[in-house]
Fold this sequence. Notes:
By secondary structure, this protein is α/β, with parallel strands linked by helices. It is built from 6 helices and 8 strands. Helix content is 38%, strand content 19%. It comes from Methylocystis hirsuta.
Amino acid sequence: MEEARLKSPSVARNREAILDVLRPLLPQQGVALEIASGSGEHAAFFAENLPNLIFCPSDPDAAARRSIAAWGLSLGLANLRAPLALDTREDDWPLHAADAILCINMIHISPWSATEGLFKGAARILPSNAPLYLYGPYRRQGVETAPSNIEFETWLKTKDPAFGLRDLEAVADCALRNGFWDPAVIEMPANNLSVIFRRA
Length: 200
């Protein structure tokens, strides 16, 4: 199973900073659904460091799910569930209730419809005041976009024209239309943001 484990260099760089934000944000107990878990390294790291929470990773990609499962097996964490096949654009998600949702580095590497689906689905399964945590690079009105983010966006669009940095205001407006409050925004290393929504 070790060959199935994917590794992302960015995870090692950002996981500690993200964990520092998540510690006071996430509930003491319950289920945290991670959307677009990718390699599964974040889910494994958070499960290891927040043992009272059950982490439920997910990804629409089969290779990613194999990697997530391999990381889970290698660590033997009782609070890390098997990965779900979940595409935010689907109306029926395989998990129908969660106490928190995490979504790291998805919004800019997916079509806008995935973001719309994220908020629609999160509104269905989260209780009132539960957090929806987003992490990644954004454009913001009145804030100059870092040159490294502009270069990154150019590269993303060579992969798919539907990808790219999203305007934070557009994301917040989408959240508002789906029953979330205005976000709290935390500056993170490498020109990224933690964006925290709560279900109204």
